[in-house]
């Protein structure tokens, strides 16, 4: 007897248009979220994942409207809780590609506890944090990443809170993949989104996103195209940390601190730090995460990418072991064990 075998159908060829919905995009004209949305839609066809197996989950804020504009499954959840919902979904449906879209206020204020634990657990999800250093949806209050002394509607005399560094928070929480990109560098942003998807474990990508209404130009001193080369450090694995239009400046460690040096006069590329994103020891990655302009060039790219077992892998292994040793179990039996009462 010949048994017919069922062959899996190849995935249809998709384009960016297949991930665009018919919803009116409701962000302020000129908002950096448009660029992040466009690059997200652009890279989706390159993932090799069926559209029905992609899910976008968000919290509350301007950035959290993004799931409405992705022609995939999505969940617009409550303030700060997107990582929790994403964790539950990934644990129950490990085959899904789960993306969390959040902002600096959503993730690092009310959602601070949730973001910390999803990072340390290393769930296999992607977290894209739009950082505009302001609360945009609620009309211009200072956020956890606003700079010290920032004058806003909720801090008319200037903030007195020390700002959080999102990448430092992620590294401190044992994140296995940490990266940063810009809303106005389409090619770089797309490459970081792809790298995030390729990583097994929690991927955390901070995107500098301009809020042109309440915090316009927050990053222009180093992200503007005419100054970017001299004021930003584009990290490449295995290559010296060199920057500048003429590639004539670099970074080295001096007395346990990052130091900017000028190449020449006895200083060569061999004196510079070589970027190793796979370094298990997070000390160099943490130093990079603390670098701010104008003292330092602002680093972008993959800062850390290390491999560890994911929470969902370990959980599945434990479940399989429990079934193998204890049997499938009976839910009704569990409910009825111990002291029970029948109410007539």
Please describe what this structure looks like.
An eight-stranded mixed beta sheet has the order 2-1-3-4-6-5-11-7, sandwiched between helices. Strands 8-9-10 form a three-stranded antiparallel beta sheet. The model is unreliable at 1-6 (pLDDT under 50). It is globular and about 90 Å long. It folds into two domains: 16-239 and 275-318, Thiamin diphosphate (ThDP)-binding fold, Pyr/PP domains (Rossmann fold); 242-274, no CATH class. Helix 6 (186-198) links the parallel strand 5 and strand 6 (203-208). It contains eleven helices and eleven strands. 39% of the residues are buried. The longest helix has 16 residues, at 311-326. It starts with 32 loop residues before the first helix and ends in an 8-residue tail after the last helix. It has helices spanning 33-43, 82-92, 104-110, 112-121, 166-172, 186-198, 220-223, 228-231, 283-289, 311-326, 331-336; strands spanning 54-58, 73-76, 97-103, 126-131, 177-182, 203-208, 232-234, 242-243, 249-254, 257-262, 298-305. Helices cover 28% and strands 17% of the residues. The protein is α/β, with parallel strands linked by helices and 344 residues long.
Structural class: alpha/beta
How far apart lie the N and C ends? 58 Å
Summed up, the domain count is 2
Q: What fraction of the residues are assigned to beta strands by DSSP?
A: 15-25%
The general outline is: globular
CATH class of the largest domain, please? Alpha Beta
For the largest beta-sheet, the strand count, sense and barrel status come to: 8 strands, mixed
Mean pLDDT across all amino acids:
94
CATH domain fold name of the largest domain:
Rossmann fold
Low-confidence stretches: 1-6
């Amino acid at each position: 007897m010949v048994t017919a075998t069922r062959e899996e159908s190849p995935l249809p060829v998709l384009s960016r248009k297949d991930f665009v919905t018919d919803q009116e995009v409701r962000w302020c004209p000129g908002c950096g979220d448009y660029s992040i949305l466009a690059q997200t839609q652009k890279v989706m066809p390159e993932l090799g994942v069926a559209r029905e197996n992609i899910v976008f989950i968000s919290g509350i804020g301007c950035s959290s409207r993004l799931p409405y504009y992705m022609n995939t499954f999505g969940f617009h959840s409550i303030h700060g809780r997107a990582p929790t919902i994403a964790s539950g979904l990934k644990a129950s449906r490990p085959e899904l590609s789960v993306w969390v879209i959040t902002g600096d206020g959503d993730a690092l204020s009310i959602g601070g506890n949730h973001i910390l634990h999803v990072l340390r657990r290393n769930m296999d999800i992607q977290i894209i944090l739009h950082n505009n250093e302001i609360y945009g949806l609620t009309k211009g209050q200072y956020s956890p990443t606003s700079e010290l002394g920032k004058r806003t509607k909720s801090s008319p005399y200037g903030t007195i809170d020390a700002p959080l560094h999102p990448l430092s928070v992620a590294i401190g929480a044992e994140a296995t993949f940490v990266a940063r990109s810009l809303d106005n560098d389409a090619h770089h942003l797309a490459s970081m989104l792809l790298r995030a998807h390729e990583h097994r474990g929690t991927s955390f990508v901070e995107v500098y996103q301009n809020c042109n209404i309440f915090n316009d130009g927050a990053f222009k001193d180093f992200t503007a195209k005419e100054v970017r080369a001299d004021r930003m450090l584009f990290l490449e694995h295995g290559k010296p940390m060199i920057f500048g239009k003429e590639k004539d400046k670099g970074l080295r460690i001096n007395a346990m601190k990052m130091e900017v040096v000028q190449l020449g006069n006895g200083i060569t590329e061999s004196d510079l730090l070589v970027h190793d994103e796979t370094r298990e020891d997070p000390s160099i990655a943490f130093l990079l995460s603390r670098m701010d302009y104008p003292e330092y060039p602002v680093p972008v790219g993959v800062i850390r990418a290390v491999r560890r077992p994911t929470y969902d892998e370990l959980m599945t292994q434990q479940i399989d072991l429990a079934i193998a040793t204890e049997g499938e179990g009976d839910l009704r039996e569990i409910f009825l064990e111990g002291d029970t009462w029948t109410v007539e």
